[in-house]
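Exercise: predict the fold of this chain.
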Amino acid sequence: MGAVSVDLKGQVAVVTGSTSGIGAALAESLAENGANVVLNGLGDADEIEALRASIADKHGVEVRYHGADMRKPDEIADLIAFAEREFGRLDILVNNAGIQHVAPVEEFPTEKWDAILAINLSSAFHTTKAAVPVMKRQGRGRIVNIASAHGLIASPFKAAYVAAKHGVVGLTRTAALEVAEAGVTVNAICPGYVKTPLVENQIADTAKARGISEDEVVRDVMLAAQPTKKFVTYDELAGLLLYLVSDAGASANGAAYPVEGGWLAQ
């Protein structure tokens, strides 16, 4: 029995929210293994172009950028159509786009609730809706939703994020059942705390909400939940993603995989 090989040469991947943080790391990992990639996300135009060019040059693949707003279904549909127009196919969809806001439920701004639900949950529905017909025509596809440990467990002051990520897990399981005989799989990765720009901002917000210092947030709130007392790394998430999109992961379907240092074992 041979070793597991991840050769994505000729495959096409769309990664939402991939101009920084987890998304950028996952997009680069796919490119490193041969996939052509469509980046998506917010940021300075020059910085995005530099990232696009860097990934393409470093790994010898084609990399495009599409600036779809993850709150707008028409733009999301065009993102998927763009990938098919540019490359003639779509093999991998990684739904990673996400935002966060921390506040007590009675003080939670309605506009923040709406934005988090739109970007963290509804966008994954819209991309999946557009991608599934393409993947069915090909007879193969991989959809990986970046949920969260908060898709499986709750924490205070994160009503919208927890609700959205629980929804992502539910969407994952439902879509997986629908496409199971079409050669398409749908899975979710549920990271614990990763030291991303989003988490860096969350440290300050949580400190304010709880009335404690930022050091106490890291030690007593964030990493207190993770028995390893370590942030999850980008490489650890990329390793699981590569398994799920490879042929070796063909029977992994409809699952939500925790990568959180044992948080949920407690």
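Check your answer against the key: The chain has a mean pLDDT of 95.
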